[in-house]
Design goal:
Layout: E1 20-26, H1 33-41, E2 49-53, E3 60-64, H2 75-87, E4 91-98, H3 109-119, E5 122-130, H4 140-148, E6 155-158, H5 163-174
Parallel strand pairs: 1-4, 1-5, 3-4, 5-6
Antiparallel strand pairs: 2-3
């Protein structure tokens, strides 16, 4: 599998294989991650974890609106969700909030992206909210470096903008919501 860096911020998809999207909205606590995800997917609340279905097309998006750093998610649970997405031909992919912390007991950003890449059937997109709604992120450069070490080139979103505008940027680049 070729994992070269691509300008769109994607990697992990094998040529000739039907690809689903993995969209990560990355930001510090209270930066607006779940608000952007709610605008993008139409999920009902900021703690939502589950599938959002388009009743017109029958297609769906799996959503993890609260980050694994805020609300625990085990590696086994993530693998189960990814397998369910991959097995569902009507699932467009997974949208997930991620805090760029370095936890010792919860899933790290690196572990999540490495798991996605190991499957080979997801195209990864990283979007980073900076500075976010509540205060700036002093470690933005460090987060970008961590993402680049995973062969990702994150797209930076202006956390001070309306969430629906950031959601439009994400959808324009990924087409996750059609």
């Amino acid at each position: 599998m070729d994992e070269k860096e691509i300008d769109s911020g994607t990697f992990g998809a094998m040529k000739g294989v039907a690809v689903q999207k993995f969209v990560a909205v990355i930001g510090n606590r209270n930066s607006g991650k779940s608000t952007v995800i709610r605008s993008l997917t139409g999920c009902p609340n900021s703690a939502f974890r589950g599938e959002v279905k388009d009743n017109t097309t029958g297609e769906s998006i799996h959503v993890i609106c609260s980050s694994p750093q805020e609300r625990p998610l085990t590696l086994q649970e993530l693998r189960r969700i990814l397998k369910a997405c991959a097995a569902n031909r009507k699932c467009r992919g997974l949208v997930m909030a991620i805090q760029p912390t370095s936890p010792t007991k919860r899933l790290s950003m690196e572990t999540i992206f490495q798991e996605i890449a190991s499957l080979g059937s997801f195209q990864s997109h990283a979007f980073m909210l900076a500075p976010g709604r509540v205060g700036g992120s002093p470690n933005t450069a460090a987060i970008v470096t961590r993402l680049k070490s995973l062969k990702l080139k994150p797209i930076t979103l202006d956390g001070g903008r309306f969430a629906m505008l950031n959601a439009q940027v994400i959808n324009k680049r990924t087409h996750i919501a059609g």
